[in-house]
Amino acid sequence: MNINSKDDIRLEDILNTTPVAVGWSSVSSGRIEYVNKAFRDLFGYTLDDIPNIESWYSSVSSKPQYYQDVIEPWIKECQESDVAHALKTMLHCKDRSLKQVSVTFSLVGDKRLWYFSDVTDYWIAEKRLRARSEMLEMVAKSSALKDILNVIVKQVQQESPFSLCSVLLFDKANQSLKLGAAPDLPDFYNNAIDGIKIGANVGSCGTAAHLGERVIVDNIHTHRYWKNFTQLAREADVAACWSDPIMSSKGDLLGTFAIYKRFPSSPTDKDFELINFASNLASIAIENFRVQEELERRAHFDHLTGLANRRQFFEQCETILNQSKEAHLSLAIMMMDVDHFKQVNDDYGHKSGDLALQKLAETSLSILRKEDLIARIGGEEFAILLPLTGKKEALLIAERLRANIESCSLFSPDNEKIHITVSLGVAFKQGGRCSVDELLNKADKALYRSKALGRNCVYLLED
Ligand SMILES: Nc1nc2c(ncn2[C@@H]2O[C@H](COP(=O)(O)OP(=O)(O)OP(=O)(O)O)[C@@H](O)[C@H]2O)c(=O)[nH]1
Predict the structure, then answer these.
(1) Which residue of 240, 258, 364, 413 is most buried, as measured by CB atoms within 10 A?
(2) Which residues line the pocket of ligand 1, CB cutoff 6 A?
(3) What is the secondary structure of 369-414 as a DSSP string?
(4) Claim: this prediction has a pTM higher than 0.80
(5) ipTM for this prediction
(6) Which residues are catalytic?
(7) From ligand 1's centre to the CA of 396, what distance in Å?
(8) Higher-scoring residue by pLDDT: 323, 250
(9) CA-CA distance, 98 to 42, in Å (whole number)?
């Protein structure tokens, strides 16, 4: 096997042109005697870096027992069956990148010839396919969004070693980013980022969301986007951050996907491809989640006023009534109905009627306490539950609602002033058992009385 004769030089030339990475070592001494060009290109190591088998395995694997645990049993198995089964394994290259390789060997006298095929691309494609199917299955099963995003993050981190990934979700109302998934970034870092307002120079993600375009920061410590966050990044031990805005199929911003690196670094073409893959998957997951969220919202909330709907009111009332039944607590239920609403529609148009209902909801919410529950249970009919509320307090709240709605400032699309009033009926539960229906019936009777008394007033139905 020594390459020193004329013919052997030709052998070296031949081996250097083969696309398969080849090397051989002495079985008796463990010395590595030859590696071809494809080997050097694949792993980056020369014979000086890996003079023997021991140095080779300590270079390519971070597991101390790698040779004993993986290689020795595999060689033994091959020798026993007399067939060199290919071993698929992950090896570190000299530049610390990882390669998935298929290894085989053959014995020629004292020399063991090694053959390595780079199967990283197949491996990645297979892993991505698996991650994609796993994610889609989770989407179909309506799994928690965080769990779905974690699958994507883990896949990227596996493909891109020494990377930490995060998915942040865009909160349109607050123009901020909320934590979606970042399982391996430290908690203190995630807490600091959670809820951050987007804008120019708000790190890579805040800026990417603000600009709606990919932001590559290869050195956090010197980049202006990170000026206000360098200390935080130092504590989290991250030095580079590449962030991609995640867009919906309609082009709306859904969030950001980011890859962090421990050392200053720029993305390669493969990294860009990986970012595209992850952003695309995250977009499917988030968009589907938003659709589900919207369906859920529509099932429980009134689309015009944003208040709870009849179904939600009954469900929540049932829960509150059960709690108060056990503790014998008092509570009040009110029915509120717009007076002569048909006239409002007739005089100012249906659109103005809608605006009136929205204004009424907004005014009511500004008066009610956060523990109170208000719902639109019919066209111009609202039900209100006041937990832990006595008669005097309930009447005060009802009167405040009536007065504030009467004096609220409301204009039609043609800028005409609209005057609306409401009638309210109040009923009580004082300890004991009572169903939602019973209470609502009582409140309805009270409402009927207040209408009969001339409207724009409150009527309390005593037991
Ligand atoms: N603009 C608008 N109107 C609605 C909506 N839902 C119901 N209405 C209208 O509300 C009106 C209710 O009229 P009525 O039941 O006769 O009651 P009213 O005119 O308010 O009279 P009183 O309740 O007796 O004071 C009808 O004209 C409905 O068309 C809605 O979502 N938007």
Answers:
(1) 258
(2) 304, 337-342, 345, 350, 353-354, 357, 379-380, 451, 455
(3) -TT-EEEE-SSSEEEEEEET--HHHHHHHHHHHHHHHHT---B-TT
(4) no
(5) 0.96
(6) 380
(7) 26
(8) 250
(9) 10
